[in-house]
Specification:
The structure holds 2 protein chains of 2 kinds.
Chain A lengths: L4 H18 L4 H26 L2 E4 L10 E4 L2 H23 L7 H17 L3 H19 L5 H32 L4 H7 L4 H18 L8 H7 L2 H25 L3 H28 L3 H16 L2 H5 L5 H33 L10 H4 L1 H15 L5 H15 L4 H26 L10 H16 L4 H8 L16
Antiparallel strand pairs in A: 1-2
Helix pairs in contact in A: 1-2, 1-4, 2-3, 2-4, 3-4, 3-10, 3-14, 3-19, 4-5, 5-6, 5-10, 6-8, 6-9, 8-10, 9-10, 9-12, 10-14, 11-12, 11-18, 12-14, 12-18, 14-16, 14-17, 14-19, 16-18, 16-19, 17-18
Chain B lengths: L2 H22 L3 H22 L10 H32 L12
Helix pairs in contact in B: 1-2, 2-3
The chains are: A mainly alpha, B mainly alpha.
C-alpha cells in the first residue's frame, strides 16, 4: 500500500485540500506543490505499468466485492496524465489570476483533483458515484467563485443538472446491485445479460452521465456554466471535468453492458455526436462573447468523442477509432484549457468579453494571441497537432468501416471550428492597440506552454499510445467473450 | 404483496415524483426538496435490495451504500441551499432567470 502511487494520488490532493483550507494564506503554494507531486506520482504509476502491465490494488486489504478495488489499465494513466498536466498548468496560471493567494479556489480545486484521480482509478461503480458527486459539488463551488449573480445562476443551474445526473446514475447502480449483488466492474461484466433490470440500469446511467457530459441535446447548461466561471476554472471544467463522466460512460459501455445492447445503441450515440458537432459549431458562430464561443466549441468536441461508439462497433476499425478518440481527448483537454486561459488574458486586459471589444487585443497581448492561434490549430485538427492525429485516425476508421458519413461530420466540424476561431482572431488583430495593461508572466506563458504542447504532442503519438494500450482497455464486451 | 414490494413501489413512486418536481418546479427550495425526495426513493430501492438473500440475515452492503448516499445528499443539500440563499440575497429572486419566478 505504501509503495503504490494509486493511494497517494488520492491522499495527496485530499490532504493538500484540507491543509489549504486550514492555512488559507498559503493556498497557492500548497496548490502548486500538490500539483507537482501529483505529476510525479502519475509518472511513477506509468513507469510501474510499463514493466508490470495492468495494476490492481485492494484498498485496505479488503478485496471486492466487499472492499473497493483500484484498477489501472492503459486508460487510467492516460486520464490521470491529462489531469496532471492540466493540474500543473492551472495551478501556475491561477497563481497569477487570483491576486489573493488565500482564494477559496485552492482548497476547492484540490478537492476536485482528489475526486477526479479517484474516479479514474476506481473499479467500483458505487465508489465512482461518490467521486462523481464530490467532483460535481466542487465544480459547482468553483463556478460560483466570483460570487456575482450570473455566476451564481450558472452554478445553481449546473448544480441541479449535476444532481439529476448523479441520481439517475445512482438509480442505475442500485438496479445493477439488486440484480447481481456486486458493484465491481469485472464481476458485473461476467454477470450481466440482456435482462430488463440491466436495460433499465443502462438507460438511467447513460442519461445521467450524458447530462453531465453535455452531449447534445443535454448540453444546455454547459455554455453559461463554463463561460461565467473564472478563466482557470473554465479551463478545468471544459478540459477535464466534462471528461470525467465521459470516462465512466466509456467504462460502462465498453466493459460492463452486454455487447448486443452496445451494438444497438452505438448508432444513436454517433448520431447525437454528429448533431452536437453541427449544432455546437453553428451556435459558436452566433455568439457575441469570447468565452461563449470557446464554451460552444466544447459542445462540438464532446460530439467527436461519441463517434467512437459506431466506429468501435465495427471490428476492423475498433482499434483505430479508440486511439483516435483517446488522442482527441488529450488534444482537446490541452488546447481547450490553453484557449480559455488565453481568452482570460484578453478579458483581463480589455475589461469585457464581447467580441466587438476585442479590437486590438492581439497586438497588446501577442503571446496570448499566438497561444490562442496554436490552440485553435489543435482544435480544428490541422497537422501536425495532437488534434490532427485524433481526427486523422477517426477519419481513416470511418472510411475503413464504410461509414463515410462520419467523415462529413469531421470535415464540417473542422471548417466550423476554423470559422469561429477566426471570429475571435480577426478583430483581435484588426487595429493597432491603445491598451497598455499588463498581465502577470505566469498568465502570459502558461497558455503558450499548453498550446505548444498541444501541437508537439502530435509527434509523440506512437510512444504515448503505447501507454494507452497497456491491458487493452475499452474492448467492447462482445469482443471479450469469456470474461476477463 | 410482501414487504419488499411495498418498498419497491414506494421507492419508484418517490423517484418519479422527485424527478418531475426537480424538472418542473422553478423555486430553488422546491428543487432542493425534490432531489432529496428522489434520493430517498433510490435509498428505498437499495433497502429493498438487501432482502435479495432469501434465507438468513439481510445483505448489509446496500445499507452501507444508503448511509453513504445520505451523507452525500446532506452535503449536496447544504451546498444547494447556501447558493440559493446567496442568490436570493443578491438578486431577490428564488428561481433561475428564464424559469418562472412565483414571487
Amino acid at each position: 500500500m505504501m509503495a503504490s502511487p494509486e493511494a497517494w494520488l488520492v491522499l495527496c490532493p485530499l490532504a493538500a485540500a484540507a491543509l489549504a483550507f486550514l492555512w488559507r494564506s498559503r493556498g497557492a503554494f500548497i496548490g502548486i506543490v500538490s500539483a507537482l507531486i501529483n505529476g510525479a506520482l502519475v509518472a511513477w504509476l506509468i513507469a510501474l505499468m510499463r514493466t508490470e502491465g495492468v495494476r490492481r490494488i485492494e484498498i485496505g486489504g479488503w478485496s471486492a466485492p466487499l472492499g473497493i478495488e483500484f484498477y489501472a489499465d492503459g486508460l487510467s494513466p492516460w486520464m490521470l496524465m491529462l489531469a496532471a498536466i492540466l493540474g500543473v498548468a492551472t495551478a501556475v496560471y491561477a497563481r497569477g489570476y487570483f491576486k489573493d493567494p488565500g482564494s477559496w479556489f485552492w482548497p476547492i480545486w484540490l478537492m476536485l483533483a482528489a475526486a477526479i484521480n479517484a474516479l479514474f482509478l476506481t473499479r467500483d461503480i458505487f465508489n465512482a458515484y461518490v467521486c462523481l458527486e464530490l467532483l460535481g459539488l466542487s465544480s459547482v463551488a468553483l463556478i460560483a467563485l466570483s460570487g456575482n449573480p450570473d455566476a451564481l445562476a450558472a452554478a445553481l443551474r449546473y448544480f441541479f443538472v449535476s444532481m439529476l445526473g448523479s441520481l439517475f446514475y445512482l438509480l442505475g447502480v442500485s438496479l445493477l446491485y439488486s440484480a447481481h449483488a456486486t458493484v465491481d466492474i469485472d464481476r458485473l461484466r461476467s454477470l450481466v445479460s440482456e435482462t430488463p433490470a440491466t436495460l433499465a440500469a443502462a438507460a438511467f446511467m447513460t442519461v445521467g452521465l450524458l447530462l453531465k457530459t453535455a452531449l447534445f441535446p443535454l448540453h444546455f447548461w454547459l455554455p453559461p456554466a463554463h463561460a461565467n466561471a473564472p478563466a482557470p476554472v473554465s479551463a478545468l471544467l471544459s478540459g477535464l471535468v466534462v471528461k470525467a463522466s465521459l470516462y465512466l460512460l466509456l467504462r460502462l459501455w465498453f466493459e460492463v453492458f452486454p455487447g448486443a445492447i452496445f451494438a444497438s445503441v452505438a448508432p444513436l450515440f454517433g448520431l447525437l455526436g454528429a448533431a452536437a458537432v453541427v449544432w455546437g459549431g453553428i451556435q459558436a458562430l452566433l455568439q457575441e462573447r469570447v468565452k461563449l464561443v470557446v464554451a460552444y466549441s466544447t459542445v462540438v468536441q464532446v460530439g467527436y468523442f461519441f463517434l467512437l461508439f459506431p466506429l468501435a462497433a465495427h471490428p476492423l476499425t475498433a482499434e483505430l477509432a479508440r486511439q483516435g478518440v483517446i488522442y482527441l481527448l488529450l488534444a482537446h483537454a490541452i488546447a481547450k484549457s490553453a484557449a480559455f486561459m488565453a481568452a482570460g488574458n484578453f478579458i483581463r486586459v480589455v475589461g469585457s468579453d464581447r467580441l466587438e471589444d476585442m479590437k486590438g487585443a492581439g497586438t497588446a497581448l501577442p503571446v496570448s494571441m499566438f497561444s490562442l492561434g496554436l490552440a485553435g490549430i489543435s482544435l480544428m485538427g490541422l497537422p501536425p497537432s495532437a488534434g490532427f492525429i485524433g481526427k486523422w485516425k477517426l477519419f481513416s476508421a470511418s472510411l475503413t468501416a464504410g461509414q463515410w458519413w462520419w467523415t462529413v461530420v469531421l470535415a464540417a466540424g473542422g471548417l466550423l471550428s476554423a470559422a469561429y476561431f477566426f471570429r475571435i482572431l480577426s478583430p483581435a488583430l484588426a487595429e493597432p492597440s491603445r491598451l497598455g495593461a499588463k498581465i502577470p508572466r505566469t498568465m502570459k506563458w502558461t497558455p503558450m506552454a499548453l498550446a505548444l504542447a498541444g501541437v508537439l504532442l502530435g509527434f509523440l503519438a506512437p510512444q504515448l499510445l503505447e501507454i494507452f494500450e497497456i491491458g487493452a482497455p475499452l474492448r467492447p464486451a462482445a469482443a471479450m467473450e469469456g470474461g476477463p | 404483496m410482501n414487504a419488499v414490494w411495498i418498498y419497491l413501489c414506494t421507492g419508484a413512486g418517490l423517484i418519479a415524483l422527485g424527478v418531475l418536481a426537480l424538472v418542473r418546479e422553478p423555486h430553488f427550495f422546491r428543487k432542493v426538496l425534490a432531489f432529496n425526495i428522489t434520493g430517498s426513493g433510490i435509498f428505498l430501492l437499495l433497502v429493498a435490495a438487501a432482502s435479495r438473500v432469501s434465507d438468513g440475515p439481510p445483505d448489509p452492503v446496500p445499507h452501507a451504500m444508503v448511509l453513504t448516499g445520505i451523507v452525500v445528499s446532506v452535503s449536496a443539500t447544504a451546498v444547494g441551499l447556501a447558493l440559493a440563499k446567496k442568490y436570493h440575497h443578491l438578486t431577490g429572486h428564488t428561481a433561475l432567470p428564464g424559469e418562472e419566478d412565483e414571487e
